[in-house]
Amino acid sequence: MNTNHLLDDIHEIFQISQKETNSYSPLTLAYLGDAVFEIVIRTIIVEKKPGTVKSLHRQSSGLVNAKAQAELMSRIMNTLTEEEISVFKRGRNAKSHSVAKNADIHDYRTATGFEALMGYLYLKGEMERLLELIRLGLGELSV
User: Fold this and answer.
1) Which residues contact 108 (CB under 8 A, 6 or more apart)?
2) Can 34 be counted among the known catalytic residues?
3) CA-CA distance, 121 to 100, in Å (whole number)?
4) How large is the angle between the packed helices 26-48 and 105-123, nearest 10 degrees?
5) CA-to-CA distance for 65 and 34, rounded, in angstroms?
6) pTM of the prediction?
7) Which of 73, 81, 104, 105 has a CB 3.0–4.6 Å from the CB of 114, allowing a cystine?
């Protein structure tokens, strides 16, 4: 099922035509995927463990960082389709001119690949798949 009501609404309300998903650079996909992943994690945390904004931020920061995303990626790698692996590799191998604070280069590149995959699935309208991969990656973590 390919549904992404938010994306459809954005296109309609702001009169933006949908582009071919493969036309985006891997770093652009990662930029968008970072935000998509963060909104999913924040939503889970707010719904499951309400608290102060400070505690909510601390919880989400524990998952929305390069090291945690690299770990999540390692948990889902064997469940990806060939197309998803290709998108991940494009993101991982993209030449970025910045490095995340408090992250080693391997984790940073792996996280960039993960974020590119999240952005790609979002733009394709495959939210169900995106959420399934996040669920699998989080596994038994208490979120």
Assistant:
1) 66, 96, 99, 100
2) yes
3) 23
4) 90
5) 9
6) 0.90
7) 73
Residues 89 and 40: their CA atoms lie apart, in Å, by 23
5 SS3 class: helix
95-110 burial: b if 16+ Cβ within 10 Å, else e:
eeeeebeebeeebbbb
Contacts of 129 (CB under 8 A, 6+ apart): 121
Residue 45: Cβ-neighbour burial (10 angstroms; 0-12, 13-18, 19+): buried
Q: Which of 8, 34, 104, 107 is catalytic?
A: 34
Blockwise average pLDDT, block size 10, the chain, 143 residues: 72 84 91 96 88 87 90 95 97 81 86 97 95 91 59
Helices (H), 1-143: 5-13, 26-48, 53-61, 66-76, 82-93, 105-123, 127-138
Show Cβ contacts of residue 86 under 8 Å, excluding neighbours closer than 6 positions.
none
Q: Facing residues of 126 across strands?
A: 3
CA distances from 143 to 21, 24, 139 (A): 30, 31, 10
